[in-house]
Amino acid sequence: MKRALVLGVVIVAAACGGKTYGPRLEPSKNTARVPLGDPVDPAKKAHMSTIASLRDRAVGPVLTRSDKGALAAYIAGAPSGTRPVIASALDGTGSPKGQARVVAQAPPDTSTLIARSLADGYLLAWTSLTDRGESLTVIGVSDTSEARGNAIELARTADHIVWVEIVETPRGAVCVWAEEPPNGSANVLAQALDSNGKPRGVPSRVLRGATSWQAVAFHEGVALAIVAGGALSLTRLDTEGRVTGEAMPISKTVGADMDLVRAGKDSVAFAWTDRRRSDPQVVIAGVDGGGKLIAPHDGLVDAGASSLVAIAPGDNGALVLWEPSHKRERQLRRVNVASMTDAAAQLATKTTLELTGGAAIEARQRADGWGLVVTTKACVEQKDKAPACGAPAPTFVRLDASLAVVQTEAFVQGPAVSLAWSLDCGGGSCLALAAGPDSPTVVYAIDLSSRASTNVAPVAHALPDDAPRLSSASTLGGGLQVADIAFARAGDATVVASIVSTGADEKTHEEKTALRVTPIAAGKALPAVTLSTKALAVGGVAMAAGPGAKEATLVYVAKEGGGARVHVARVDDNGARRSDTTLAGGAKGDASDVSIVAVDGGFVIAWVDTRDGNGEVYAERLGNDLTSGPAVRVTNAPGDATDTALASSGANVILAWADPRESPHDGFADIYAVTLSARDGKPLAKEARVLSTAAHSRSPSLARTASGVALAWIEEAPANAASEEAKGAMFALLDEKAHPVRDPIKLRLRDEGIATSITLDADPASRLLHAVIARVSQDELWLDAARIPLDAGGSVDSFPLVALDGPSSLDVALALRNEELVYSDAGGDAPTEARIRRGLLAWKK
């Protein structure tokens, strides 16, 4: 996609393939300014050379390198009349070699400029508006910036010239361009040139009706990627710019970010993001040296949703930059750097960069690795202190052959540099152009040779090899909101149940909800089955299955007349309902907050019921045939209990819930627990408070241990709380009598943030618990995986799994069992849409 960046009086146009030249960026709104607090570092200033000082609106400058040096070119602004095309020869460090020269005159309405190097000089091309359309002009320039003859008009058309590229060939070059008529689809043309820019023969029409394109050198000619009618194909041109053979179909569908690069000496690679899926994926295709198609395939294995950032050509493969695909823009971007030996190979991600904003990233190959221009915070090391970071700034990052960061250098901070572009590398060094937002606009050439870093590398903290990772993630479905999720195994399948919002009733305007079941067999989600359209969000959903069971049992709350009743359903591995029953027959009041656990010969369920005026906890024993015993009232206390959780413990069951009996008017709850008989659901002792806190305790999660259960919950402090210390996740061990075996502790995670949701699961192979925690860090929402020792003293071994799309206020529903994790997230284009995702965890330890 061709981009045009407007910076004060400078227009920077970079030909990278695509349909249009936009967008345009105004520095006062979109360009980060670097503070001018410190004087220019003399060492840094030694690496910069002034290329131009521009007062009027100009086109360029642009930069290109050759084996003999480099060339900077721009078209000066002029209030009226023609505009001089100026070229300046540079040495390998970016220093001018003599005076800049006027090599041609361009019309007043000239808008784009490109520069390309050849074996013995350079070619410049620009487009200009005419009385009835647009023209394309080229000129050859020598290594000393002298014009090699007069500028030559290659094309004059009534259409809009929306793209130009020049590809070197053994006989000079081929210029390819696209002319877009008013109907919107373009005609692609080509013209052979000698090394002085003179045409050989006449232009040839390559294709009509193209919507995007890209051209690279291929063998001795040109490989031209064309998207027309939504399909991608490859057309080859010879050294005379003529089409050779039939176009090769690549893909019937292609993403708008499609790019084509040389990947090795004799092959090419395509890359794009397939956004038709619920989870976008980076797709790779190619053509090898023998002309054989490498069919489109997912470039990343089990990376979850991914999005292409950039792809750069290389002599021994390509460099691919990608990031997790998110639905909303983030201040911090985590861009992964991957190598690709050829288009048939999977991408190998080696490094993750932490960058800021949505600025474009440039990448070029060097003899010793790769050079990148990115935007990130300019940070410097401080002795015995955390690094000191300034505002985001253009930064050069050098990677070695293994893709490790070996040099980080923020561009000069005074004078202010707010934009860097036109990166080009050769041998063991790189050059780039840079400028600031002030007028007159001073443009510099920056020498980016290998040297010691001046800034902290913007590299994400590497996780240890044994850290748990989310090895795959897929979307199962969703709704406007996700109230609760649960899952269980049924035979060889995983059955996921969810309660989602489906919109408002047209007549009553009440929110409609649905209980859906999604079976997953052989890693593939089957179509969701709707079990109920009367299920209530306040009831939640819980699932259980006995060892080796072919069916799963779920419990939920549904509207029943004027109230809400507890329902129990059994589903098979296809999600089909096998039986259904309603509990607490004839009871008055509303039910909510259900939970279930499998025990010998059946199940124990618990819920909150208002039949006695306020929300009290009830329990009941179910047989395997879903026959029920009498409901047992567990609590008798003021205030409304919430959030029941169940886990088996020895021969009995432990029940936990949130109870506000000490402050029923404020609703601030503490966590209570009690042991229930697995035979009838009756309490075996009086319930007890686990811990008294000033904050609101909620959302208990239980996991069985060898001598009782582990309990985790969330402490939610009031909005006016004086300290963040009151917020987060708590942890306790309970014995078989539901008594704490030691004082509960607050879990302190490795990374900054506050835990807002937690789910526990026992690791049967060790004295460790597995936990997944929703963590809010600034404006981001993360899921972390934690391994919690049974003797945890506060800090836990936690690792970031995935950054969610949802806002920090999102109430994340979580369910975990062994390696399977199901969670809710935001999704879709509408901010109110939500999705349910399933991931597989590799715990590693």
Keywords:
845 residues, mainly beta, 5-stranded antiparallel beta sheet, 4-stranded antiparallel beta sheet, disordered N terminus
In short:
This protein is mostly beta strands. It contains 2 helices and 63 strands.
Could you please describe the fold and organization of this structure?
The chain has 845 residues and is mainly beta. The radius of gyration is 32 Å and the shape is elongated. It starts with a strand and ends with a strand. Mean pLDDT is 88; it is low at 1-40.
Shape: elongated
> Low-confidence parts lasting 5 or more residues at pLDDT below 50?
1-40
Q: What's the total count of β strands?
A: 63
Strand content: over 45%
Report on the biggest sheet. 5 strands, antiparallel
Estimate the mean pLDDT confidence.
88
Radius of gyration: 32 Å
Structural class by secondary-structure content: mainly beta
Determine the fraction of residues in helical runs and give it as a percent range. under 10%
- Between the first and last Cα atoms, what is the distance in angstroms? 45 Å
Specify the number of helices.
2
